[in-house]
Specification:
Elements (H helix, E strand, L loop, with lengths): L13 E2 L23 H31 L6 H29 L5 H38 L9 H25 E6 L2 E6 L5 H41 L7 H33 L6 H28 L1 H15 L2
Antiparallel strand pairs: 1-3, 2-3
Helix pairs in contact: 1-2, 1-7, 1-8, 2-3, 2-4, 2-7, 3-4, 3-5, 3-6, 5-6, 6-7
Amino acid sequence: MDNLPWNPASPNISCRGQGGSCLPPGGNGTNSTGPGPYPDFYIAIPIIYSVICAVGLTGNTAVIYVILKAPKMKTVTNMFILNLAIADELFTLVLPINIADYLLLQWPFGELMCKLIISIDQYNTFSSIYFLTVMSIDRYLVVLATARSKKMSYRTYRAAKIVSICVWLFVTIIILPFTIFGKIHDDQGRLQCVYVFPSPEILWWKASRIYTLLMGFTIPVSTICILYTMMLLRLRNMRLNTNAKALDKAKKKVTLMVMVILAVCLFCWTPYHLSTIVALTTDIQQTTLIIGISYFITSLSYANSCLNPFLYAFLDDSFRRSFRKLLECRTAP
């Protein structure tokens, strides 16, 4: 995704991006990567992407290492966090290819790599929100069991692994259409990795945007909002009607961490999905201001892949302790 999903201007070609197509900065609807007449963006964007890549790789590698190596980190919630970190790690690993694509103004890596990068872009769009949905369901079930003073025998680390595999399979099915439409297009001698839709192209383009909006935002976010509303009502009734504590201290901290991760995810991704609505309802002229907003929204969505590790380190005491212990073991003579 190089900028906002504005309506494509040329027939049968849409620029590559997370979840859909867009009108590129050049303004001609064919070049998905070039900066056109905006040299400031050409310099700034690779720098911003490189920072996101470096921070994301470092942070997510640390999260994956700690969860896999520290025995005390083998919890249900951490299994979902591990998968979130893996999804973010995959995206940051291929971000240098997106940077090269942007700088070279064409795609030199072949169609197989084009489809692979498009697929990973889409995994980044969909996987985080669906793992957060699963984490929200898990939090609700924990609250429900606490309210009823029941143990959750089915809530095991192994069960979390199975659920995680199911989420990956589900997201793979969701992104399959984008992988199919991702192709190499020869634009006057310059190869571009883009979505090439069948005729009528504009209808397919709109369908792809609506599909991403519904499956990547509206449905999962609505589910999460309903779950947390029910959770808050349950906690309120517990305080009013019983003498039992709503949750013990540890459970409260985990619930808070999940809610903060969710809030940051929505902060980073809501502008992108709102831009989809704008793209579907408004004919926007590609001015310098609009292109600048476009790149800002793109960078904000990318930044979500490097923010989560800082949230774990700030909110999770056990993560910090495990990380320090592993560092001490590695540095000990």
